[in-house]
Specification:
The chain has 456 residues and is an alpha/beta fold. It folds into three domains: 139 residues, Rossmann fold; 165 residues, 3-Layer(aba) Sandwich (Rossmann fold), CATH 3.40.50; 130 residues, Orthogonal Bundle (Helicase, Ruva Protein, domain 3), CATH 1.10.8.60. The protein has 19 helices and 14 strands. It has a five-stranded parallel beta sheet with strand order 2-1-3-4-5, sandwiched between helices. Helix 2 packs parallel to helix 3, helix 6 runs parallel beside helix 7 and helix 17 packs across helix 18. It is globular and about 70 Å long. Adenosine-5'-triphosphate binds next to helix 7 and helix 15. The site of magnesium ion (MG) has 3 residues, from helix 7.
């Protein structure tokens, strides 16, 4: 299931050290239907570029400290599909040209004409959509459809059932699981499956931001709230209004902020740092952590009352080693993805590699699997990935015991059966089309249908 991306509210980031320009641009963009975040320098902008699903960046060229050109370079590296529009001083043609050469989508000169700017933005968005499809064919991960959640194990199916159910509600969700199991992927899926899908999905990484900063990131601040607060700024809570707020690594939040968060959740309202006005918000909260919160509560590092507020719908994503069946379809998908990205025709991995994969612990879970497969594809000389390409830590687990082989065999039979069922379902039980979909002959599918007793 995919949702019409065009109906989502686009999210723009404005980077400019001049407050007036930020305000004017923000107003213009908001009037044209954007959600807008702003930063006054490059350092502040970078975490936003990393964390948010931005559609557009507009940056000033000349700023104290790092320049718009530096930001452009970072943005090209981090999010190549996001168009960057450079704001340059009137007459500075050289800078403008150099920005375009380094990958800026376009430039506008100050003082800017509103219509001209909106035209450039419109064009950037419509072209970048195509651009994104192109880019995602090569770079996969960044813009992959949210429903690219792969897995055939009963446990992941159960997770997806919960996702669909909870998506229809506004309930708070707490996602737990080891690093790399797909917590963020699931959080985004809950958002896109929900009625809030056209509203912003805003992520806050509670572990990556120092405590004091996190407070103002979350709740915003008023001018003069602390030294350096020369303007007021809305927090992520305000920006996520009507959408979903993803509080990642919630287990790393300080007790002080936990108290503030609890009160904001209870009252559905809060005040900016240094502010008196109460701001009401309506959003779904999705929290995630790889920490054991029960343990943290026992140690007094996590508030029990906050835990119960967040844990309305718990979603536990099991580690990859507990759902061996998922390794097959995931590997298959990754081989194809990295194959096309590296312009190599790789048909798959050898049975010995699959065996080693299934015997390995995967402490980094799916992220680790992604990295391993990517490395193997890059190094590959043949079209099947063999054990010679395995990293040492995985090679060591390649076992050849008879019972182990049987276990793998039964899993791959299960997978095969499921794939045939899926293909038949997708094609309305049309065997010829199902065979085509699977890239096997009609005779093979006939045999398999018989073998697995799938006759209607
Ligand atoms: N079921 C899945 N199907 C396809 N890709 C997946 C699946 N689960 C995870 N991934 C991919 O694995 C990588 C790690 O997932 P994600 O970032 O969501 O994990 P995480 O649990 O948030 O990890 P961390 O705790 O380190 O933040 C991502 O690239 C994600 O797309
Ligand atoms: Mg994560």
């Amino acid at each position: 299931m995919t949702h019409d991306k065009e109906r989502r509210i686009p999210l723009a980031l404005i980077v400019d050290d001049d407050r007036n320009i930020r305000t004017v641009l923000k107003g213009m963009l908001e009037e044209s239907g954007f959600s807008v975040m702003t930063s006054q320098n490059v350092e502040e902008a970078l975490p936003i570029i990393v964390e948010q699903d931005l559609d557009l960046v507009i940056t000033d060229l000349k700023m104290p400290g790092k320049s718009g050109m530096d930001l452009l370079a970072e943005c090209r590296g981090l999010k190549p599909a996001v168009p960057v529009i450079m704001v340059t001083a009137f007459g500075d043609v050289e800078a403008a040209v150099s920005a375009i050469k380094r990958g800026a989508y376009d430039f506008i000169t100050k003082p800017f004409d509103e219509d001209e700017l909106l035209n450039v933005i419109k064009k950037a968005l419509s072209e970048s959509r195509k651009n994104r499809e192109l880019v995602s064919a090569y770079f996969g991960r960044e813009e992959a459809p949210l429903h690219d959640i792969i897995g055939r194990s009963d446990t992941i199916k159960e997770v997806l059932r919960t996702v669909r159910k909870v998506a229809r509600t506004d309930s708070t969700v707490l996602i737990t699981g080891e690093t790399g199991v797909g917590k963020e992927l699931i959080a985004r899926a809950i958002h896109t499956e929900s009625h809030r899908r056209d509203q912003p999905f805003i992520k806050v990484n509670c572990a990556a931001i120092p405590d004091l900063l996190l407070e103002s990131e979350l709740f915003g601040y008023e001018r003069g709230a602390f030294t350096g607060a020369v303007t007021s700024k809305p927090g992520r809570f305000e920006i996520a209004h009507k959408g979903s707020l993803f509080l990642d690594e919630i287990g790393d939040m300080s007790l002080h902020l936990q108290a503030k968060l609890l009160s904001a959740l209870q009252n559905r309202s809060f005040e900016r740092v240094g502010g008196v006005k109460t701001i009401r918000v309506d959003m779904r909260i999705i929290a995630a952590t790889n920490k054991d919160l029960q343990e943290a509560m026992r140690a007094g590092a996590f508030r029990q009352d906050l835990f119960y507020r967040l844990n309305v719908v718990p979603v536990r994503i099991p580690p990859l080693r507990e759902r061996l069946e998922d390794i097959f379809p995931l590997t298959d998908n990754l081989v194809r993805k990295f194959g096309s990205r590296n312009r190599k025709t790789i048909t798959g991995v050898s049975p010995q590699v699959m065996e080693a994969f299934s015997g390995y612990d995967w402490p980094g879970n799916i992220r680790e699997l992604e990295n391993v497969v990517e490395r193997m594809v890059v190094m590959a000389d043949a079209d099947t990935l063999g054990t010679d390409l395995l990293p040492d830590e995985i090679r060591g687990t390649a076992r050849t015991g008879e019972s182990f082989r049987k276990r793998i065999e039964s899993i791959s039979r299960l997978t095969e059966k499921q794939m045939i069922i899926d293909a038949l379902e997708k094609t309305g039980q049309n065997r010829t089309k199902a065979a085509e979909l699977l890239g096997i002959s009609r005779r093979t599918i006939q045999n398999k249908i018989k073998e697995y007793g799938l006759q209607a």
